[in-house]
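Dear Dr. H.,

I hope your travels went smoothly. While you were away I took the liberty of generating a structure for the chain from your last submission, since the lab meeting agenda had it listed for discussion. I wanted you to have the full record in hand beforehand rather than looking at slides cold. The sequence, exactly as received, is reproduced here:
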Amino acid sequence: MLSFSEFKKPVLAKKFGEMPDGTLIMKYHLVNQNGMELELIDYGATLTALRVPDAIGNSVDVVLGFDTLAQYIDSFTLPSPPYLGAAIGRFAGRINQGLFYLNNKLFQLEKNSATHTLHGGHHNFSQVVWQKVAHENSENPSVTFLYLSPAGASGFPGNLRVELKYTLTEKNEIVVDYQVISDQDTIINLTHHSYFNLDGHDSDIQNQDLFVHATQILEVDDDNIPTGKYINLQGHKYQFNPAQKCPNYIDNTFVLNNNNPLAASLYSPKKGIKMEVFTNQPAIHIYVGGNCFKQVEGKQQAHYHALSGICFEAQNFPDAPNHEHFPNCILRKNDLYQHQTIYKFQNLFT
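The corresponding predicted structure, in token form, is as follows:
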């Protein structure tokens, strides 16, 4: 068992809970010299808390989360599981009917969203125990998790070795790095699923300013499956360049400008906190939500609702294996998949 005594600042660890089979789940606490604090757990390689100093120096927890392991587990029984802070895989977003062809072979995946596969099916990365394999107490503290996903999990081919590294930098960045290798050709699309609220996790996002560096979104059908077409954003209600207030509802994939790593930003005039999102991925899926249907209580007795937070899911296009003109999502045997997303925070005065 790990204990706080086995770590020197700025990485600390303590017991968070136990899985039903008795597996120990640890919480890791990272801090930087600017007062930012990041907390992670082994279950789902989940980001549970992120405390950021606001413009007057007060600490604000800007992500939704739960106080106990049981609440994280129970959240996956909700009518629409929120995946609070979790690693997402093997494939972020929806795959139409859970079907795709690879090397002229048809694969049928588990269906966990009506007749479709969402975020990797039932055997997804968000609901498994990851192994903590490394931590660094250097200038930029980090924790690296490992998960070995067996061939056939949810119907996907290939044994995957997945490493996920979280780093808290002195530039007030949370750096999320995935590295994946497979022993067979497979498909892959990973992301991170924190719900951000710069006014605090127990507030709502309606008065925060959203910017998205995109001129197109994906057209989708009534089941939120991409049709293969693009919608131009000029004059569209989801044109967030220049920035506008967060919408009451959004669940759309924005096509990013690959020449500019800045994908999106969020700003709280109330707290003076700005978050910028940088990524090497071709899209960012933006979703407003966090609703726990008054069935599972959030941190500090918060009641999360449909406007509690906003996700910035940097990723490939949903249903990419079924659209030849979408960016490639095939990971060839022994090739390396690399994904990096950075959430950078700064304090601004209006």
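Two observations you may find useful: The chain has one helix and 28 strands. The CA atoms of residues 90 and 120 lie 5 Å apart.

With kind regards,
E. W.
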